[in-house]
Amino acid sequence: MTGMTSEDEFAELFPETRRALLHRIAVAQSEGRTPSLVGAVVRDGRTVWTGSRSCVDGHAPDDDTQFRIGSLTKTFVAVLVLRLRDEGLLDLTDPLGRHLPEPAEVAEVTLAQLLTHTSGLAAEPRGPWWERTAGALRPEPADLLSSDRPLCHPVGRRFHYSNTGFALLGAVVERLRGAPWGEVLRREVLEPLGMTRTSLEPRAPHAGGWAVHPWADALLPEPTEDSGRMAPAGQLWSTTADLGRWATFLLDGDDRVLSADTLAEMRVPTVTAKPEDPHSHWGLGIQLQQDGERMLFGHGGSMPGFVAQLWISEEERLAAIVLSNATSGPAVGATAADLVRITAEREPRIPEPWRPLPDVPPELLALTGPWYWGSAPFVLRLRADRGLELARVNDLSQGVRFRAEADGTWTGLDGYHEGETLRVVPGAEGPGGADTHLEVNTFVFTRQPYGLDGATEVVPGGVDAEGWRGL
C-alpha cells in the first residue's frame, strides 16, 4: 500500500510554529518581569519544542535546568495514593483516621475528599508561612492543624483548596509503605519513568528563586526551605524534560506505575472550583480547565521564587510546560495554555489511519444496525477494537461508547451510560435473532419499536394489547 504518511514525518514543528511559541514565552518573560522562563511542548509522547528566555545573556535555562514546581507535586502524591488503592491497601472512601489516627480532629474526612479539596480543611497549616519556614516547626501530622479551627467548612460540602490536606495524604503514604514519602516516590514512580532530574532538593544545574520588586526593576533572592511534613504539598524540583515524561505518563499510563484506566479516573471532574467559574474543575489530585472549546488537565504550582504550570490536552495529545523563577509576575497558566493552542491550531494532530477489524465475529456483526428504546430509534455500531457505540439516529454525534469486557458484556465509557453495563440477552433464534434485546441497567433496547417483533414481555410496563393504531 502506498501513499500513507507517518506521524514521524511531522515530529518537528514548522519554523512558523516554533517562532510563534518562542514569541509567546518571550512576551511572558518580558511582561511578567521574571529572571528566566523556560517552556516546552510535548506531542504524542515526545518533546517537539523547547525554548527559554533569560535576563542574563548566555545563561538561558534549558530542558535540564531544575526549577521548583510547587503544587505540581500534588499530582505525584495523588498517583502514590491511587497506587495504594489499586493494590487494595486503602479505599478512597476510607476515613483518614483509619490510616492516620492522629490528628483525631479530622479523622472522619475521607481520602477522596482530601484528593478533591472538599475536606473542609484549612488551606494552610498552623504556624508561620510554611513555604518560607523550616519544616521542623511542624514535626508530626497533628502539628499541621490549627489548634482552634482545623476545619473551615463542612466536610464534603464545597471546594476549598488545602495544602494541609495533601500533607496528610503524604503521611498516609508513609504510614502504609513504612518509608518516607519522598523515598517511596523515587522508588515507585520516578525511577520507573526515568525521571532522574526530579527531586525533593535542588540538584545542579538549577535556577535560583527570586522576588521582583512590584514598582522597580529590582530583585530579591528568595529562601529555600525544607518544608518537612508539608513537602507533599509543593516541594519537588523538576525540569521540562522530566515533566514531559510526566505529562506522557499522565496521558497514557505505565503499568509499572499506574494504569491508563486509573489515570483516566483521576481526571474525571468531580467538583467545580468556584460556582462563578464553571470552567474550572478538580478531579483526584488533578486540575481541569476549559480553555475555549479545549479541555485541559494538569496542575499549577508556586513556591517562593518559582511558578510552574503543566497543561495537557487529551484529545490532541498535546502537553505544554512553563517554568519560571519569580515569586509572581508571569502568568504561566495562560502561557502554557497558549502553547497548547498555538501548536494545535497551527499543526492539528494527524489522526490515526482507519483500520478494519482483524476478524469479524458473526455474532457481533449481527448486533449492528437499528435498535429502539421504546419509540426512539438508535443505531449500534461495531468498532475496530470490538467495542460498541450506541447513538440516537437523529444525533449520531452524541453516541455512547462501550468497552468490550472478557465476560461478554460491555462497559459504558461516556455519556449517560458511563460506567454502566450493556448486556446482550439472546432470543430464541440466538444473539442476533429478532427477539434479542439489549439491556443497559433498566434501559431495554429492542429490534422494533415497542414490541413489533413480538418480544412484548421484555418491554418494561408491557405493550398495549391492541398495538399501534391510528387516531
List keywords for this structure.
471 residues; alpha+beta; Beta-lactamase; 2 domains; eight-stranded antiparallel β-sheet; 9 helices; 20 strands; 23% strand; disordered N terminus
Brief summary:
Keywords: Hydrolase. With 471 residues, the chain is an alpha+beta fold. The protein has nine helices and 20 strands.
Describe the protein in words:
With 471 residues, this protein is an alpha+beta fold. It folds into two domains: 8-346, Beta-lactamase (3-Layer(aba) Sandwich), CATH 3.40.710; 362-458. The chain has nine helices and 20 strands. The chain has helices spanning 15-31, 73-86, 111-115, 163-177, 181-190, 240-252, 260-266, 332-346, 362-365; strands spanning 36-43, 46-54, 67-68, 210-212, 219-221, 237-238, 271-274, 277-282, 287-291, 294-303, 306-313, 318-324, 369-373, 376-382, 388-392, 395-404, 410-412, 421-425, 437-440, 443-445. The strands form four sheets. It has an eight-stranded antiparallel β-sheet with strand order 2-1-12-11-10-9-8-7, sandwiched between helices. An eight-stranded antiparallel β-sheet has the order 13-14-15-16-17-18-19-20, with no helix packed on it. Strands 3-6 form a two-stranded antiparallel ribbon. A hairpin with a 2-residue loop joins strand 19 and strand 20. The longest helix is centred in the first third of the chain and has 17 residues, at 15-31. The protein is globular. It starts with 14 loop residues before the first helix and ends in a 26-residue tail after the last strand. Residues 1-7 have low confidence and may be disordered.
